[in-house]
Amino acid sequence: MNFYGLSRQSSFVSFIKTLEHNWLLHVKTTRTLKTQQTRIKSSQNFSTSCKHLTVKKRKRGPSARSNKLFQIEQDRLAMATSKLKDQYFDYFLVLDFEATCKENELIYPQEIIEFPVLKINSKTLETESVFHQYVQPRVHKDLTPFCTKLTGIIQAMVDDQPYIEDVLKSFDKWMADNNLLDENVKSLFVICGDWDLLKMLPSQAEYFKFETPSYFNRWLNVKKAYAEMTSTYPKGMMPMLEGLEIHHQGRHHSGIDDCKNIGNILIELLKRGYMAKATGSR
Ligand code: AMP
Ligand code: MG
Q1: pLDDT tens, 208-257?
Q2: What is the pTM of this model?
Q3: Residue 184 and which of 9, 83, 152, 250 are 20 to 30 A apart at CA?
Q4: Is residue 211 flagged as an active site residue?
């Protein structure tokens, strides 16, 4: 091989080497690009699945705990901005009897079948204790279908329940257990109208010849409180709820639900600056 031939051969080898190097470089670059693309794709998939999770979480809404905390904060704010006055009474005892009844007909003697009372703290406006007892009627033992439809009280809810005298004893114990008989603790019954404590309880006491404790002899009729604050005398509980834009809770003419709604009306009036006082007595 002459010098010229050798040199031709070596330049051919270096040409092949350059080709090989470029090819390897190409393969390497393609591989790197592919890996990067896969990484991007999988990260996109991940964020999509994260989005999916986020959407799902959002759909579930805030937790019960955060709802509760939000409500507490709202209540605090409402209390801070309310015109709640220092009340003469420490507690309000919201009471609402249900009794035996017939459609378009008077029933005699009418007897209490549901006896619920809420104890509301006049400063915090919290319900601190509840007395709730169904009562067995003695004269008209069978509830009329009308009575059940009106009050939601079925026969089985009063059968085998204590009679009114025993319920009054339990109620007196509840009053004592709740410090409500302490002369330094001032409380006032709150009813819707005057019927419960002016007519219903006294007429039943007279018929069955039992005494009623003196604490039942004075009360606040929430309709009068509403009239004082709004200059409109309301027909009943429902128009008061509507007038004050309060959501009605539970079933109308269920004693315990009526108590909750009457309590909410009272609380709203107190927040608007109502100074509670007895409006009825016997
Ligand atoms: P309330 O506190 O308004 O739920 O009613 C107390 C009680 O009054 C009821 O348990 C019934 O005995 C009687 N009452 C209420 N509405 C009627 C009505 N439309 N017809 C007959 N009795 C009624
Ligand atoms: Mg009622």
Answers
A1: 999 999 999 999 999 999 999 999 999 999 999 999 999 999 999 999 99
A2: 0.76
A3: 83
A4: no
